[in-house]
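So, does this match?
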Amino acid sequence: MAASIFTRIINGEIPCHKVYEDDRVIAFLDINPLSPGHTLIVPKEPAETVDKLSDESASAIGRVLPRISRAVLAATGAKAFNILQNNGAGAHQAVFHVHFHIIPKFESGQGLGIGWKPGKLEDGAALASRIAAAI
């Protein structure tokens, strides 16, 4: 995996507004925020997408995600927020190092705006069976 901007931040080559760090995870403010408090949580392990992330790094993210979310809400006064995580260019991933966005949503409309076009589940039993078998 090529070194990303996040790798350079993790290595201290690029400054950031850090809000949290431990052995496996770093969290810092997004420099192009959708709203005040928009925070990125990044594993230190260099993996491009979640499916390539180790169980240990995934667990570390899961452990701190609620804690950092609570802190963002407390610091910004936001009452709602989105957690966004994209995998692959086709899913709008722009930096190819796993990262999670915590994006506060405000009554003013600041925050993440999404369109949701639900489809219909076709042959759910067969699909669920294939997924379960792959696990």
Remarks:
- The longest helix spans residues 55-76.
- The chain has one domain: 5-134.
